[in-house]
Design a protein that fits this description.
Shape: extended
Distance between the termini: 8 Å
Largest sheet: 2 strands, antiparallel
Strand order of the largest sheet: 1-2
Number of strands: 2
Order of helices and strands: HEE
Strand content: 15-25%
Number of helices: 1
């Protein structure tokens, strides 16, 4: 199943079953749904996507190995969260959302 479909399905289930994240968090398995951002990541159709530029890789003038990259990516790609401010003026940015509102019960549906 594609990552974005999985996330949308889980969001729909949370909406339908009314999980608010304020319930006691059970001691079940935690499943990390994050995926790498790279040239295979699915992005919003009008987004430019992911770009990785290699700045340096190799031995420096002083003989040390060093590697550095620069990356640029659209915000609407892969698994992500749309902050309330994305749709409503003067609402929370992602870093302002209380963590307990982002954790809740979920159902795994294997299609």
């Amino acid at each position: 199943m594609r990552p974005c479909i999985t996330v949308l399905l889980l969001q729909l289930l949370v909406f339908l079953f009314g999980c608010t994240g304020s319930e006691e968090f059970p001691s079940h398995n935690i499943i990390d749904l994050t995926h790498a951002f790279d040239d295979q990541t699915i992005f919003w159709p009008t987004a430019q996507g992911f770009m990785l530029e290699k700045d340096f890789e190799g031995i420096t003038e002083k003989g040390y190995y060093y590697t550095a990259n620069t990356f640029c990516t659209a915000e609407h790609g892969g698994t992500h969260i749309d902050a309330p401010i994305h749709f409503y003026e003067r609402r929370n940015a992602v870093d302002e959302i209380p963590l307990d509102q982002l954790i809740g019960a979920a159902v795994v549906v294997d299609v």
